[in-house]
Amino acid sequence: MKRLIVETPRLQLYEMEFTDMAPLSSILQDEKVMYAYNGAFTEKETTAWMRKQLQRYKEFGFGLWGVFLKDTNEMIGQCGITMQEYKTTQIPEIGYLFAHRHWHKGYATEAATACREYGLNTLYFNKLYSIIRDTNIASRKVAIRIGMQPIDRVIKHYRGMEMPHIIFCTK
User: Residues in domain N-acetyltransferase (predicted)?
Assistant: First the structure.
């Protein structure tokens, strides 16, 4: 049975399992969704991504969780908290990624708000961050909507490219 992490009026966030590979693959292997990652994942990259999430659950007790619609139980994305390197330290990052057909419905803001509250009130982080590619305007807007502000810019090296990112932080 899946472990429920947090619930919102429309969504439930659960720890993912390998039984979630089909909906996960449809999201991570979609070019429209993965433009900020410089392209869709392969099947091998998707499996590695899932293994990484499962390892995060074991190592930290948190990670990126599957976002499910309450009324249909359909997995529509992922949202959660991961530890990411920033300068010389590890910081807790709120991350989110949703199936293209579920964009512009408020799900990312709703899920990210729940993750912010979980991170501050359950995991007791003093601050939470989001590291967002500078070209990802929609994700930048979500970060601002949940009360984050830009504090820095960094270059991330990913898939053989240098990609400018903006660091957002809770106030």
Answer: 16-166
User: Could you report the per-residue pLDDT of 117-136, keeping only the tens digit for each?
Assistant: 999 999 999 999 999 999 99
Strand partners, 75: 68
Report how far residue 131's alpha carbon sits from residue 133's, in angstroms, rounded to the nearest whole number: 7
Residue 155 in contact with residue 163, Cβ under 8 Å? yes
Structural domain that includes position 41:
4-126
Residue 73: inside a domain: yes
For residue 128, what are the contacts with CB-CB under 8 A and spacing of at least 6? 81, 92, 93, 94, 115, 116, 119, 120, 148, 169, 170
Please compute the mean of the pLDDT values over residues 66-84 and round it to a whole number: 97
Considering the domain boundaries, does residue 143 fall inside one?
Answer: no
Angle formed by the axes of helices 21-28 and 43-60, to 10°? Answer: 120
Strands (E), 26-170: 64-69, 75-86, 89-98, 129-133, 148-158, 161-170
Q: Which residues have CB under 8 Å from 56's CB, separation 6+?
A: 62, 63, 64, 82, 83
| 85: in domain | yes
Domain count, the chain: 1
